[in-house]
Write a structure and sequence with these properties.
Elements: E1 9-13, H1 26-37, E2 43-46, H2 58-70, E3 77-80, H3 87-100, E4 104-108, H4 116-127, E5 134-137, H5 149-157, E6 161-166, H6 171-179, E7 185-188, H7 194-200, E8 204-205, H8 210-225, H9 229-246, H10 252-260, H11 277-292
Parallel strand pairs: 1-2, 1-8, 2-3, 3-4, 4-5, 5-6, 6-7
Length: 296
């Protein structure tokens, strides 16, 4: 059986529930975090793209991270720390997140991927201000966002950077990072290539459908770790259907699936994502099918 370190596995993304006036429903958030933690993923990822992190104030991001830790049932929580423009503001947010009790920090690639040496120096310098482990995130909201594999290999070799959320969505590019990951963990965001990436050597997943179907990802990962490839592929196929179900109107679509699964969450978003009556009906039909066929 392959050995994986403590930074491999399923990173479950957390949505942010909003009320109609677009204030955060913190009570719903706490209940949702507990629900996500109940599936026992290896990690929870608060303050992420799926949580609409760029639409949250720094104070909201820190509060959400703290509530995630409080309701995580012992599952380690990671949170993005370097969204602000000025370095000093990033350092202050990092410190606030540390004080919340997060187990690790996430650094976005910050739109610097066309300046590899500058990016390397920036990330190493930023990481020197924390004792927590760091996961890198190719966040599409800040382009160019796809890190050169050579830069990733250099960062991984420092031992400080424990993994990367790869968002290339191209298997050959995923393989380039896997080739230089060393003791770190390439974590896959692309669902169509998830099973293939595991076969090539990826060591985990950080993907949008974990927001409403973390249980499927945990089951797939557990099957993969025990080297039951047939079971892993069967769960992968179920995940593909979930990915297709939420594709249009994300993350309102994921919020509605959570609601249909019993989570007290409205579908309002600050990013403007919404659902038509037809999308509501299609998601209801999908969840009915998933429940009746033992998928959920």
């Amino acid at each position: 059986m392959t050995h994986y370190d403590g930074f491999a596995g399923v990173y479950t993304l957390l949505l942010t529930p909003f009320r109609k006036d677009l204030t955060i429903d913190y009570k719903a958030y706490e209940e949702y975090v507990a629900w996500q933690a109940s599936f026992r993923p290896q990690h929870l990822f608060a303050v992420c793209g799926s949580s609409e992190m760029t639409e949250l104030t720094p104070a909201e991001r820190v509060k959400c991270a703290g509530l995630a830790v409080k309701n995580s049932q012992g599952v380690p929580v990671f949170a993005t720390a370097n969204l602000q423009r000025e370095t000093q503001a990033q350092l202050e947010e990092m410190k606030a997140l540390e004080q919340c009790g997060v187990s690790g920090l996430v650094f976005v690639t910050k739109g610097m991927c066309d300046r590899p040496d500058e990016q390397y120096d920036y990330l190493v310098s930023l990481a020197s201000h924390t004792d927590l482990p760091v996961i890198l995130y190719e966040f599409p909201g800040m382009r160019p966002h796809l890190m050169d594999p050579g830069v990733y290999g250099r960062l991984a070799a420092t031992g400080k950077f424990k993994g990367i959320k790869d968002t290339t969505s191209v298997l050959t590019e995923i393989e380039k990072k896997i080739a230089v990951q060393g003791d770190s963990n390439v974590l896959q965001a692309n669902i169509p290539f998830l099973y293939d990436a595991y076969e090539k050597g990826a060591r985990g997943v950080v993907a949008t459908p974990t927001t409403c179907g973390a249980d499927l990802f945990v089951k797939m990962w557990d099957a993969w770790v025990r080297e039951d490839k047939a079971a892993a592929k069967a769960f992968y196929e179920r995940i593909i259907l979930l990915d297709n179900a939420i594709d249009s109107g994300f993350n309102a679509s994921a919020k509605y699936i959570c609601r249909l699964r019993g989570v007290n969450m409205e579908v309002y978003t600050r990013t403007g994502a919404s659902l038509s009556p037809a999308r509501y009906r299609s998601l209801e039909a999908y969840v009915d099918w998933a429940k009746s066929n033992g998928v959920f």
